[in-house]
Amino acid sequence: MGNQSPLDNNGKTITMQDVAQLAGVSVSTVSRVLDERLPPSRSASAEKVREAAKQLGYRRDYVASSLRRGDTGTIGVLVPRLTDTVTAMFYEAVSQAAARHGYFTVVATCGNDPEKEEHAAQSLLDRRVDGLILSTCRLGDRLPKQLRDKNVNHVLALRTDGISPSAIGDDELGGYLATRHLLDLGHRNIGIIAGPNFSSSTLHRQKGFLRAMQEANIVINPDWWRDSDFTIVAGEDAGYEILQSPNRPSAIFAVNDDLAIGVMAAAHRLGLEIGKDISLVGYNDIPLVSRLPIPLTSVKTPLDQLASNAVDLLLKNSDEPMQRYSLPTLIPRGSSRPNR
Fold first, then answer.
1. Which pLDDT score is estimated for 11?
2. Which end of the chain, N or C, is more open, meaning fewer C-beta atoms within 10 Å of its C-beta?
């Protein structure tokens, strides 16, 4: 009820035609000026429209207008979980980017379960969202192909299948920067906690790690490579396995910050000091890591830019390629120091 326009003195609802008459413009001009999805106009006519709407107390009926257009002004966003800092930050950035275009976002979570992902996507579509942004893509998932086959407007984000429109970070470059940083500090014995192989971001960061090591003519020690989940617990378990060995590496690259925080916990259990006994680099640069007792060196992907790319691709506001990359930056801190 709060979004309905008030009544005039005769008990009739104030309409867009009333605003147009008072402002001395056409109804189409009123519609265009009051459409929050469009950039605000600063013309004299637009100011007259806004002043007339304010004077009459007119509020646009977005439900009725969306039915006429055949859309709802709503974007569905699918993430693995909102307890993960990166996906929570990403969703917030998408919500803000969508709002700049006059769209509202609705979020659904599915863990990393393909069946739950498909169910959540369908539930959002049943609510007539105008498109989907998915940060849940697992390599081999059926959902992106199903969406393409049904011509459902969608964009993959953070992860990609290499086919659907995607807004992602340049994860191979990020993995390369992390490893090159450790090499430049004189480290040659470098381990990796490599994340799950169902994620394109994991595989691309691994690829960057391998490229940097190969350029330095260093053979990878398989004892220092651990596939894992993306969690702190997984990082602690993998880090403990690597670090408890007498033949431990001098540095570790963890493919996300949660894994790196887990490695820090493992090092503490073993009486090792991060930055002194073991150098460590993470990925994503979540806000927590710069405030740790030993601040974590990390690779930062600009999530605001990535989210903006995702919304632009979904709304088709650009003729640029359908694979949009955001460039990462290495942020060096106290967890990585020269090898002695």
1. 52
2. N
